[in-house]
Amino acid sequence: MVESEQVDVIVVGLGVGGEEVAGRLAEAGLSVVGIERDLVGGECPYWGCIPSKMMIRAANALAEARRIDGLAGSAEVRPDWAPVAKRIREEATDTWNDRAAVERFVGRGGRFVRGSGRLDGPGRVRVGDQVFESRYGVVLGTGTRPSVPPVEGLAGTPYWTNHQAIEVEELPESLLVLGGGAIGLELSQVFARFGVRVTIVEALDRVLAVEEPESSEVAASALRADGVEIHTGVRAERVDHDGERFTLRAQGGAEFTAERLLVVTGRRAHLDELGLDSVGVDADQRYLPVDDRMRVTDGIWAVGDLTGEGAFTHIAMYQAAIVIADVLDRARHSRPGADPSGTASVVGGAMGSASALGASGSSGTAGTVPRADYRALPRVTFTDPEVGAVGLTEEQARSRGINVQVGFSKLSDSTRGWIHRVGDEGFIKLIADADQGVLIGATSAGPAGGEVLSGLVVAVHAAVPLSQLRHMIYAYPTFHRAIEAALHELR
Ligand SMILES: Cc1cc2nc3c(=O)[nH]c(=O)nc-3n(C[C@H](O)[C@H](O)[C@H](O)COP(=O)(O)OP(=O)(O)OC[C@H]3O[C@@H](n4cnc5c(N)ncnc54)[C@H](O)[C@@H]3O)c2cc1C
Ligand SMILES: NC(=O)c1ccc[n+]([C@@H]2O[C@H](COP(=O)([O-])OP(=O)(O)OC[C@H]3O[C@@H](n4cnc5c(N)ncnc54)[C@H](O)[C@@H]3O)[C@@H](O)[C@H]2O)c1
């Protein structure tokens, strides 16, 4: 048996969630080993949120310029992908190099190990020839990878995932997008605005199917206006690549061809790679279930996409704060002569007297571990118009037997929408629990729909009574005044 090295905490996977947990625990004075097999920071900064939003910023600038005609004169727009690719390479990803992130982690007091970590019994993690043993526990933050459907022929073709789409230096003439979810819609609109002929093929009967049907309609009609072809209810049967072009054949005989094929049909965790059987946890699951303190089992926590609680960076960060508080709580109570009130410094040891966590307050008060609550989970799909949503959709609320009231108002009927004119598509949809007199869900689609959402997130999170929401003052003429109009429509 390989001799193991003892540390306080082992973090496997330094994506959004793992990096936050490992860095903060190290700052708090624990000895932390952080293990990452690819790039420290994970999907979001290198192939996800940040570069995709840089693309969207650029594509939206083109769209705004194209709206000048008829509103403010005329403009000739000549898209150029080169500055977008350069910005992603130089500003966002350092050409997909994590040097700075590794240095940041080490600078916070962490020990970095590059490799694939795997549980090797309770508290133990193996990385290649090294074995680490943890005093307080192991945190898993290994995220997800693209889930590629078993369509005949697809596996042998040079299809793109989000990685190649984000890294692209020269745009193709045409692009087939398999999957009309968040990634499919955001990237399709970007590429279409830069002149690529884009076709989306979606299996369900509408795009963005996890959100309200009205959201699907607004997003689909905006993309169509940008020239994107959308085919829903299509079952892909076979994919071929002849060296130059892809052909996708669908059930019923329909055929789609393009120079490139982007597969964005969801993501999946790879639990089989984590050695979960060595700690008695079933690896044959889609995600790793956790309790409201993110505990998988005694001494093992999970954070981020791996938990299946919503694949968003803000969820990974939210969960990370809970894990940090819980691990520190355990460390506090495990020390000889521990102060169970939790009022002493967070942990002992050479670096333990001053707690950065205590100073920032993000882990909660010493001794109290916050519990996860996803009632007011916000999400924003950054199409133009943006589709922001929080809490339950109408269908989810009805299927739970809630006494539902729905309020709806179109942005174009608001003063601000009318002033805005071109590009004012969108709406506010409110879902209320009539018995409780509170909002339990809401959608805010429109220009800055994700920003307008914030008031609705507060309303759902804090269960603000509808009577109070109706008697608030909404600034004139804002887009968010449409919330007031929708409140008056609740029935
Ligand atoms: C194109 C795209 C756009 C997105 N846009 C947004 C957005 O606008 N807003 C938003 O909130 N979210 C967005 N997301 C989702 C967001 O990127 C994820 O929710 C987030 O990255 C999840 O963080 P994580 O820490 O759970 O996992 P990840 O970021 O996936 O990190 C997991 C890390 O673990 C490593 N790893 C895996 N297994 C092992 C192992 N055995 N040993 C060592 N290391 C391992 C991986 O290499 C990886 O670095 C987007 C995603 C994509 C793909
Ligand atoms: N703005 C954001 O916050 C943002 C942006 C991008 C991604 N993300 C996160 O990343 C996750 C993954 O994004 P995604 O777009 O890959 O997944 P998704 O689950 O959002 O969408 C996948 C789509 O592919 C469709 N699909 C599945 N199999 C198919 C098949 N065989 N043929 C045709 N269509 C098929 C599904 O019906 C679905 O509409 C999202 O769930 C989201 O949480 C967030």
Unreliable residue runs: 339-365
Cα distance, first to last residue?
67 Å
Rough shape? globular
Structural class: alpha/beta
- Number of helix segments? 15
CATH topology of the largest domain: FAD/NAD(P)-binding domain
CATH homologous superfamily heading of the largest domain:
FAD/NAD(P)-binding domain
Structure description:
Residues 8-320 form the FAD/NAD(P)-binding domain. Belongs to the class-I pyridine nucleotide-disulfide oxidoreductase family. NAD(+) binds at residues 179-186, 202, 266, 305. Pfam families: Pyr_redox_2 (PF07992), Pyr_redox_dim (PF02852). The protein has 491 residues and is of the alpha/beta class. The chain has 3 domains: 5-41 and 98-144 and 269-356, FAD/NAD(P)-binding domain; 162-265, FAD/NAD(P)-binding domain (3-Layer(bba) Sandwich); 378-488, FAD/NAD-linked reductase, C-terminal dimerisation domain (Enolase-like, domain 1). 31% of the residues lie in helices and 22% in strands. The protein is built from 15 helices and 22 strands. The strands form 5 sheets. Strands 1, 2, 3, 4, 5, 6, 16 and 17 form an 8-stranded mixed sheet that branches. A 5-stranded antiparallel sheet has the order 18-19-22-21-20, sandwiched between helices. A hairpin with a 4-residue loop joins β11 (236-241) and β12 (246-250). α1 runs parallel beside α9, α3 runs antiparallel to α4 (82-92) and α3 (49-66) packs across α7 (182-193). The longest helix is centred in the middle third of the chain and has 22 residues, at 313-334. It is globular and about 75 Å long. The chain starts with a strand and ends with a helix. It binds flavin-adenine dinucleotide (FAD) and nicotinamide-adenine-dinucleotide (NAD).
